[in-house]
């Protein structure tokens, strides 16, 4: 799928989805659509529909955002993020560069990683949006 323009994305996404994925925004904790969803399936990028995470890798980190300990192989690209006087690792969709969230080294023993992802950047398979 070819990468969509900012104009196309702005017309297709909600204002919150656009702000998060294209302007590197963050939704408020405990407000996103998927922070407390535990259905089986795959989470996809809201911008390009690339598969990002399998539901069996989701866990409750208590932070208010969907958290995963492992992405689908090759789905994410990492970038150094030094905004707001912090040093973090941003994760974006490899296919379309949409901002998804950040990865932290405080996850479960299986990988030691916590991918803290904005619900606004995701679509769970089977959802209508």
Automatic annotation (TrEMBL):
Belongs to the MsrB Met sulfoxide reductase family. Zn(2+) binds at residues 45, 48, 93, 96. It comes from the Bacteria. Binds 1 zinc ion per subunit. The zinc ion is important for the structural integrity of the protein. GO terms for biological process: protein repair; response to oxidative stress. Its cofactor is Zn(2+). The keyword Zinc applies. The active site is at 116 (nucleophile). Its EC number is 1.8.4.12. One of its GO terms (cellular component) is cytoplasm. InterPro entries: Met_Sox_Rdtase_MsrB (IPR028427), Met_Sox_Rdtase_MsrB_dom (IPR002579), Mss4-like_sf (IPR011057). It is an enzyme of class 1 (oxidoreductase). It catalyses: L-methionyl-[protein] + [thioredoxin]-disulfide + H2O = L-methionyl-(R)-S-oxide-[protein] + [thioredoxin]-dithiol. The keyword Iron-sulfur does not apply. This is Peptide methionine sulfoxide reductase MsrB.
């Amino acid at each position: 799928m070819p990468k969509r323009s900012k104009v196309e994305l702005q017309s297709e996404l909600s204002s919150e989805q656009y702000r998060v994925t294209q302007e590197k925004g963050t939704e408020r904790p405990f407000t996103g659509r998927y922070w407390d969803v535990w259905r089986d399936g795959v989470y996809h990028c809201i911008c390009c529909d690339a598969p990002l995470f399998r539901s069996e890798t989701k866990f409750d980190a208590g932070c208010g955002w969907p958290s995963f300990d492992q992405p689908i192989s090759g789905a994410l690209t990492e970038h150094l993020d030094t905004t707001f006087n912090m040093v973090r690792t941003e994760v974006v969709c490899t296919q379309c560069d949409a901002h998804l969230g950040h990865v932290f080294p405080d996850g479960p023993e299986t990988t030691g990683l916590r991918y803290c992802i904005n619900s606004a950047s995701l679509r769970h398979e089977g959802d209508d949006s």
